[in-house]
Write a structure and sequence with these properties.
By secondary structure, the protein is of the alpha+beta class. It has one domain (9-87). 29% of the residues lie in helices and 27% in strands. It is built from 3 helices and 4 strands, in the order H-H-E-E-E-E-H. The chain has helices at residues 9-21, 27-36, 84-87, and strands at 38-45, 54-60, 67-72, 78-81.
């Protein structure tokens, strides 16, 4: 069974850094976003086929279809993963 938890202080800082450095939000905007929306962390994610394994952070925003998935790259930096639809160029 997959266990999940709320992000710790370091993970919240990683989310804030991502939104300031990659998306150009102010520190205040990024902090408010992290404090306002719902984030869950899965440690030690293992896929059922070859792919990413490790920590995953899910973000759920103002409504159910507004979500994002973040993972840590090989350098330990948090990155946003595009959805399967985005990867295929399908906006629907």
């Amino acid at each position: 069974m997959v266990e999940f938890r709320e992000p710790n202080k370091e993970e919240k800082e990683d989310l804030i850094a991502y939104h300031t450095e990659e998306l150009g939000k102010s520190r205040k905007e990024a902090e408010e976003m992290v404090d306002t929306y719902n984030f869950i962390v899965i440690d030690g994610y293992l896929p059922d086929s070859p792919g990413y394994k490790g920590k995953v952070i899910f973000a759920l925003y103002g409504y159910v279809s507004a979500y994002e998935v973040y993972v840590y790259d090989d350098d330990g930096k948090l990155t946003r993963q595009p959805s399967e639809q985005e990867s295929r160029g399908n906006k629907n």
